[in-house]
Design brief:
alpha/beta, Rossmann fold, six-stranded mixed sheet, five-stranded parallel sheet, 13 strands, globular
Length: about 300
């Protein structure tokens, strides 16, 4: 079993050597998690840190005769590409026949899960690797249903680095959890445009540096951050919201100055929930937890719901 480090002798391979993939790789190595010396990049010209003696390969130039050796040496593949790339590469990933941890967001879920259903591997969907967020979702799941006599609206203002190609998967998941409990949260991301600020119903996505600085993002982290502010507005559900506040308040203990902040407080209109992340180092925690889980579950499709339960 894995803990903060791992006893697994096989190495982890990253599929998608962009900013998130490379940051995860470094964080896993810092935690003494064994990693493979081969990682998948979408562009053959991408380079990994030379001193680590690692090689970037692609699904195109991967030699199928190396499959058996690959399976012997790789414990799991962590997928960090965009949802669109995942849809194109899922057949190749399944041919590898090793466990997958998929951190991609905004993809055709029905398509991906239908393909995985015919495979013999274990797959974990992990849109966020922060333990604080996993705990946050767990507590939201445990909330009672909001009575039909109450109306509480939920909105989200999220900010990520300009290079992010999709909306916040973390924010989408959180709004959907709230909707399951009876909160009103209507959004449509079909017109999402990368690289610009946009408003999509109850969800605002900030990608322009000036807007992000106005939100309080430190200039140092403009190219690596995830800021989320949820506003839960209500008139008549005071007892319910007080109970919700009390169940979430201790999440503030996860806060690490300068790195991660979780806050919840009352405003004149309702409750404000904030979770802000600078950098990407701590996403490895949820990945290690997922690796633990997949060690005990050899076949099947799993989500963060299974992980937090």
């Amino acid at each position: 079993m894995l803990s903060n480090t791992t006893e697994v002798k096989k190495g982890v391979t990253i599929f998608g050597t962009g900013n998130l993939g490379l940051s995860l790789l470094k964080s896993l190595m810092d935690r003494d998690v064994p990693v493979s010396n081969k990682h998948f990049g979408i562009d053959e010209s991408e380079l990994l840190v030379n001193e680590q003696n690692m090689e970037i390969i692609t699904s195109v130039n991967f030699d199928s005769s190396d499959l058996e050796l690959f399976r012997e040496k790789v414990s799991c593949v962590i997928v960090t590409v965009t949802g669109a790339v995942l849809e194109k590469e899922i057949d190749f990933l399944l041919r590898l026949q090793v466990p997958l941890i998929i951190m991609s967001t905004k993809f055709d879920e029905e398509l991906i899960k239908s393909k995985i259903a015919d495979s013999d591997i274990s797959v974990m969907f992990l849109p966020n690797g922060l333990l604080a967020i996993i705990d946050f979702w767990k507590r939201l799941q445990k909330l009672p249903m909001l009575g039909d006599e109450y109306e509480v609206t939920a909105s989200l203002n999220e900010s990520h680095q300009n290079s992010k190609q999709d909306p916040s998967g973390t924010g989408i998941n959180t709004l959907n959890y709230l909707k399951q409990k009876g909160f009103k949260a209507e959004f449509d991301l079909s017109e999402f445009r990368p690289g610009v600020d946009g408003y999509y119903g109850c969800m605002a996505c900030k990608r322009v540096a000036r807007s992000q600085l106005d939100l309080g993002v430190d200039e140092e982290f403009l190219d690596a951050h995830g800021y989320h502010t949820y506003r839960l507005n209500y008139d008549m559900a005071q007892d319910y919201m007080q109970s919700m506040y009390e169940s979430l308040k201790s999440l503030e203990d996860y806060s690490i100055p300068g790195v991660f902040t979780f806050k919840i407080y009352f405003s004149q209109q309702g409750i404000i929930i904030i979770h802000n992340m600078n950098g990407r180092d701590f996403y490895a925690e949820g990945v290690i937890k997922s690796m633990n889980f997949l060690e005990d579950h050899k076949k099947g499709v799993y989500s963060v719901h299974d992980l937090i339960n």
